[in-house]
Design goal:
The complex is a heterodimer of chains A (305) and B (391). Chain A has a single domain, classed as 3-Layer(aba) Sandwich (Rossmann fold). Helices cover 30% and strands 23% of the residues of chain A. In chain A, the strands form two sheets. In chain A, strands 1, 2, 3, 4, 7, 8, 9, 10, 11 and 12 form a ten-stranded mixed beta sheet that branches. Chain A has a two-stranded antiparallel sheet with strand order 5-6. In chain A, helix 2 crosses helix 4 and helix 7 runs parallel beside helix 10. The termini of chain A are far apart. In chain A, 56% of the residues are buried. By secondary structure, chain B is of the alpha/beta class. Chain B folds into three domains: 92 residues, no CATH class; 234 residues, Aldolase class I (TIM Barrel); 39 residues, no CATH class. Chain B has nine helices and 19 strands. Chain B has an eight-stranded mixed beta sheet. In chain B, strands 1-6-5 form a three-stranded antiparallel beta sheet, with no helix packed on it. In chain B, strands 2-3-4 form a three-stranded antiparallel beta sheet, with no helix packed on it. Classes of the chains: A alpha/beta (305), B alpha/beta (391). Chains A and B meet through loops of A and loops of B.
Amino acid sequence: MRPKTSRVVRVKTSLSSPERLLASTAVLRKMVEAGLLELTGAADPAEAWSRYLLPTDVVGIKVNCLGGRDMCTRPALAQATVESLQAFGLSPHRVLVWDRSSRELRRCGFSLNKQKKGEHLCFGTDEKGIGYEKELTVYGSLGSLYSTLLTRHTTAMINMPVLKDHGLCGLTASLKNIFGALHNPNKYHEDRCNPFIADAYSVPFVRKKHRLVICDALLVQYKGGPSFHPQWTAPLGSILLAEDPVALDSVCAGILDRLRARNGLPPIEKGGGVPAYIRTAADPGHHLGRYKSEQIDLREKVLQP
Amino acid sequence: MDRRDFLKTAAGGACLLSLSNLRFGFERGSPVAAFPGPDAAWAEAPEALHEASYYEKRGHKEIQCHLCPRECIVGDQERGYCGARENQEGTYYTLVYDRPCTARPDPIEKKPFYHFHPRSMAYSIATPGCNMNCKYCQNWEISQVRPEQARSFLLTPRDCARQALDLGCLSVAYTYTEPVIFFEYMAACSLAARKAGLNNVMISAGFVKEQPLRDLLPHMDAVKIDLKAFSDRYYREVCRGRLEPVLEALKIIRQAGVWLEIVYLVLPTMNDDPKEIQALCAWIRKELGRDVPLHFSRFYPTYLMKNLPPTPVHTLERSKEIAHTEGLQYVYIGNVPGNPGENTICPRCGARLIHRTGYNIRIEALRGGKCSQCGLTIPGVWGNRPNKAAS
């Protein structure tokens, strides 16, 4: 039976220097694993991973590199997750860190690896022989070609966005990260990206492959996003984990609004509340998760380094 | 953009010309191909960055595009709706300058132009991208993708004109996708084409801001506008555009004296209501004149519109009748080869001026732009020479 609430875990660290944290794979791995244990109630990380993955899965970690080196999913967080997955029993060549293009991954500091054995794979949809599906996926308002990295080359997806304000739709976190799998995201920025984001996440193969969100909120862009503007960033030193992408995005909306209020800015959504596309994702037509605070079981953990 | 700026845009292209040619020549070790066909002719062209026209910087690396009525506000590293323009560090670039994905000679009737140099060929170029997203787009595989997702090749404006001449074309046509989104390249090509004694023809949806359109028109010899419907709701829901700017563009084109033809693709149950057709025709008669050719084209299911059947021929014939009743003089049926509605008929005496079956064209009772039976002057640009002298 489906639980009545969606659990979202926020793991913080008291590590004072954000620079140290952003580069510390060891600390980040502890944060990921602590979050997993809190999320699942499992006794150890391997058991927690086994709730979501099989050792035979080919896991795609969808990162977000649009904002460049200063405002992307941090490579150290992806690396920490990869190491935890390997400890769980996934061999390196069964883990792929990916985004739209190899160029963007490289620009963000990811080490590309297309075939070297013994290390996890990392490349973009634009690599030769990868590309997008030839057949359109049509769902609601959506008509797009999806990356074959999602449709063919992986069996499970860990969604690993970075939390940012987004001038066109309010915020970008887990749900909007799926735009990086589409060939034509530029067509979906109208009407505050609504209902396009919800539609893009609702197609059957995305639902089927979605397992978990691990959201990078180490350094948060609370205004001016999705591109990087240092004057409007806040070193939150947090990651968020959830199975429910809607609930996680709803929590993220609250985080952004609090940061904005602290800096004398209006909420991301006129009049407050979550952006329209998050509400759409929760509606009966999409049923991707829950956004109301009373439906979210938010747990916070503080990790001592 | 004044004439000086327009020339500057083109000059930028000309400056790139020598470098581009060198690179093409050295890398391939052969002269420029007539037009790309085999895979070998496609270039793995590096990103073609050329600063865009018609945009303003808004601070914090944000820009606003003023090329089309969408007026996208674009953040750093993001693209506009068209996908062909990108903001890099607060400067807006077109990514498709010099980089068409298609270049080939076509009969001018394919555009379709029925009153513009019939039986001539048009060297037809397109780049990836579009500022609309029509659910029935037959060219979606190039119009609805980003430049890096299509196979593009290097073609400088001067080479474009040269190839058009080599292939015996009378015109260069900016077509297939939406040429407005490759405005800078089109501007440069149109200057090169004029210089070479060629015509320029644009095939567009007309979803463009007034200033760029006015700047472009002096360099165009003919424009065909796809009027998608006569309903703003249809524009918004089916095409992701708006009707009003297109109607304004039609008036501007007509006032500029550039030869104009209109295509109306008839979708069953979507824009084929006789009342809508009647209102459309009345508007054309009042605002543009009764001698503007209007083509009712047949729809075939494609892209996101596969749930509709092809347009029944009788719907097209009914639309044509309505147009005639409203007083329009040159009304055609398109995409139905062999239908008598393809022919040009003298509105005064009924003589068959031009007989068409698909792209088989026979000039019959048309001599020197007049009906050979009754002497009526038939509006259009006739003959087989460019209609403006090379400058």
